[in-house]
Amino acid sequence: MKWYQSIKIKLLGFFLFLCLAFILTLILTFSFLRESQFEENALKETSLATQKALSYIQKKQIEAEVIVSALSSIYEKEIYDTHENHTLIPSILETSMSNHIHMQSAGVWFEPYSIDKKSKNHMLFFNRNQDNKFYCTDAYLPPNKMNYRDMTFYTLGKALKDNETAWTNVYTDPVTKIRMITVVSPIYRKEKFIGVASLDLSIGNPDKKFWSNIDTKNKYIFALDQKGYYIGKSNLLEQYTKNSDNIYDIQESPVKHLIDTIKPVLERHDHEITDEESIEKDMFRIENDPILHTKSIVVTYHLPSTHWHIIIGMNEADIMSEYNQTFQNILWLIIILTLIATLLGYVILQIIFIKPITSINEQLEDNMSKDALQYKHLECEDKGEIGTLVKNLNARTSALESAQKREAEEIEKNRKNEKLLLQQSKMAAMGEMMDAVAHQWKQPLNALSMYSELIKSDYEDGSVDQAYVDQFRDDIQTQIDHMVNTLDEFRTFFRPNKDNQHFLLSDVVNSVLFLTKDDLLKNRITVNIEQDDPISIKGSENEFKHLVLNIINNAKDAFNDNHIEKRVIRIRIIQDRKGNRLEIEDNAGGIPQEIINDIFKANVTSKGEGKGTGIGLYMSTQIAAKHHATLTVKNQNEGACFTVTFH
Fold first, then answer.
1. 604 pLDDT band (50/70/90 cuts)?
2. Which of 56, 72, 107, 268 is the most exposed place for a label (fewest CB within 10 A)?
3. What confidence tens digit (pLDDT) does each residue in 447-485 have?
4. What string of DSSP letters covers 391-422?
């Protein structure tokens, strides 16, 4: 037995296979869970990373909207441009500056003649000086002498309802040349629109410190208005955006591909004011982030009230690092526990399963080495299934021992029966051969009787002389020689060969035909012999003669039983690529189909009742087997063809 065929190795391999299958299943399960929870974890991690920026923007947004709402509320009552308002508005603005709202300027802009019946374009504009003080100036003029009511901030504010606010896109102020964004609120008096309050916030340098603080090498973040202009951005983006104020103007190929990926989400939102509580999120997996230079997760946050976007990009490995570490710890723990369970299971099975089986196998090997024919009962202390198995094996052993004794008795009985059948077959063949010899001797005896009558009459006639006596003696000797040869052939036919020897098939055929020629002539049977090269085989020549004689005698009986007129037996000795074989074919009508498959079994015959014993062909198969050949038969050409094929 090879080492890998041992049940110990197989059990150990089985447990290791279960261990590997279990671990692989866990890995696949965790991988599936990882993928299924990936988006949730990614949004969670990016939300935490974005929270500071989102809070910063929302805080500034809320504070700015509160200030502009305060400005618009000043003029809701019947209060005109007084010195008190000139000081109140700067006070509100300067107080808000302490809260780090980077206001550049503010203003209130009115409809024609709504405040002063004499002034068509009445407005108050407050600018911030270097001391962060706001002062009212009448020097602010729209570019190209454009009417302020045609400017974007005014038309945006005019479209709002009372107490609503709205934000413009980021723009460069045509007068101050400063990048800023404006929040506006309409001014209503007695439900009638009379103007717009505006607050201008500077964009860029004032916020750089904040955006730098939330910047890391594995993360970038930036905020855009609805047209793609930067509201704020981290330092990682500077090298890609320093020559452009709008994200859509970036021509750097890798970064442009990133922007094109998220662009459909940035552009899909319309300009209607929606629920401020609902912040929309979209996530993208970037295979090779051009900014982080690795796999990343990019999440966009849409602020419905302003249609601003906050975009954050994070290293994918950082997002899943905590989950991956937990997974690795659990996996190692499971691997260790599984290996321990495998070893314990193997040890337990070694004690309760392998050890009893090994003991049983050793007992069997010991019994076989001492006496293979002696059955001995096995011993086993196990009380479970293995013990039951041993008990059943012992019962089976007892049954086999009894069966062996019965089989030995049957073999001895069959051997005696076969010997008896062989003797009967020989006696039957001897009887037929005696009949053939009688036919062979009948003609010489008749000739001798005739010679005795002739010599008497010739003597009485006086015609007997020395020449006559010599001729008479030669004729008698010829008949006697024929009878002696026939007797010698008969004696040789039934004399057993002590040793196997080489002989020619043609000699066997000729010997059988010599003994049966008179019987064949009597039954009007013609024998044709076809032979290629001589075929020599080794065995008992006389036994093989019995095989040929049995087949010829069966053909003779079939001719007589079926009343065949033209009777022919063809004997072919063939040596070709298919091998050496002897074919004996007749035209006696063939073997009945219902018994042809059993014709070589003992006691099976095609002859009528009382005419055959059914042992001739059975013994012929035994003779063929002794000569390393097989005997077969098939019906063809109006008769049966027996073939002896030598191997």
1. confident
2. 268
3. 677 777 778 777 888 787 888 888 878 878 877 876 777
4. HHHHHHHHHHHHHHHHHHHHHHHHHHHHHHHH
Q: Given a cut of 50, is residue 273 above it in pLDDT?
A: no
Angstrom distances, CA of residue 436 to CA of 323, 440, 489, 517, 518 = 105, 6, 12, 8, 7
CA quadruple 311, 315, 319, 325: dihedral, nearest 10: 180
Q: Which amino acid is at 299?
A: V
Residue length of the chain: 647
Nearest Cα to 602, choosing from 412, 433, 408, 420? 420
Give the type of residue at 194. I
- Say if residues 82 and 339 touch (Cβ distance below 8 Å): no
Predicted confidence (pLDDT) per residue in 126-171, tens digit: 888 888 888 887 656 665 667 888 888 999 999 999 989 998 888 8
**Percent above pLDDT 70 for the chain:** 82
Instruction: Determine the Cα–Cα distance for residues 144 and 146; give it in Å rounded to an integer.
Output: 5
pLDDT at 493: 58
- Give pTM, 2 decimals: 0.47
Torsion angle of C-alpha atoms 586, 590, 591, 593, degrees rounded to 10: 150
Alpha-carbon torsion, ordered 185, 186, 187, 189, to 10 deg = -140
Identify the burial level of 125 via C-beta atoms within 10 angstroms of its C-beta, where 0-12 means exposed, 13-18 middle and 19 or more buried. buried
Mapped onto helix, strand or coil, the DSSP state of residue 70 is helix
Radius of gyration, CA atoms only, the chain: 61
- Alpha carbon 4 to its chain centroid, in Å, reads 25
The helix (run of H) or strand (run of E) holding residue 349 is helix 321-349
CA dihedral 353, 356, 359, 360 (to 10 degrees): -100
Domains of the chain with CATH codes: 44-319 (3.30.450.20), 375-494 (no CATH), 496-647 (3.30.565.10)
What is d(CA 625, CA 68) in angstroms, rounded to the nearest whole number?
120
Which tokens belong to 219? 């993360």
Name every residue whose Cβ is closer than 8 Å to that of residue 183 and which is 6 or more positions away in sequence: 61, 64, 65, 68, 165, 166, 167, 168, 198, 199, 201
What is the DSSP track for 502-539? EEEHHHHHHHHHHHHHHHHHHTTEEEEEEESS--EEEE
With 90 as the cut, is the pLDDT of residue 388 above it? Answer: no
CA distance 226 to 221: 16
